[in-house]
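Give me structure tokens for this 308-residue protein.
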Amino acid sequence: MTTPGSGDSRVSKNQRREAAREKAKQLREEQRKKDTRNRAILITSLSVVVLLIVVGIGGLFVPFSPWTVNKPAGPGPANMASDGIQIGTGFVAATTPALEAGADPVPTVVDPASGAVDIRVYVDYMCPYCGQFETTNNSQMGEWITSGAATVEIHPLSILDRSSLGTKYSTRAANAAACVANYAPDQYWAFNGLLFSNQPAENTEGLDNDKLKSLVGEAGVTDQTAINSCIDDKTYNGWVADATSRALQGPLPGTDNLAVTGTPTVLVNGQKYSGSLTDASAFSAFVVQVANEAYSTSTATPTPTPAS
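Here you go.
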């Protein structure tokens, strides 16, 4: 015979043990879920940190967002490793490999034995003073190139984007010039001259892309397909911005401490021209003076002659 009181006691103890086991099971399950969540959070956090480090590499640590990651600037055009293109005898451009993104420009090597004067011109195709210098001196510089008395290296910059009513003409024109340098370098001299003979006034929209492409054809480029795409795609806009920044910060390639403080900046054998932009004889006299200083004992190559 069982006693009701003792039976109830045994059931109560069994129930308590079962309840304890169930409670422990629930706690373990909750802890497992918590651990899983924590691991997921940790992995996500580590992933974000890695992305932040990648985005911030080079010392700049910025919050990551898929909308704020900037595409890196691409390489520059071929034949402009110095950030400019050198035009020599026959208006043939010196060939160089493309400048990689972030690389320093490579100064053009000028052979002193050649006797040719090294003229370098930093221009903005919207700059009216550049237009004055070009109009005044294009013909005589062309004669010096033809005779082998000088080489002319042209560096397109984009300083006056603010002066084209939002169209960024300086950048678009410099990009178009870079496209010609890359695909048709021997037509660069002609294209450069056409950009200035068709130069728009400041505070206008400037030439549109279709006009720029038509000037490429006028410069003698027979197959424009690649250049047209290059102009429309703004292929070298990033390089234009970088080259402009380098020129403004200095030193200019091949110099110790010179920088562009305004356009045009004209260097003759590394010496800065500061004379009149509208007097061909003044520029010619400066070039002859510098040439005589450097090559007073050389007669291998004709020196520039003063304008008559």
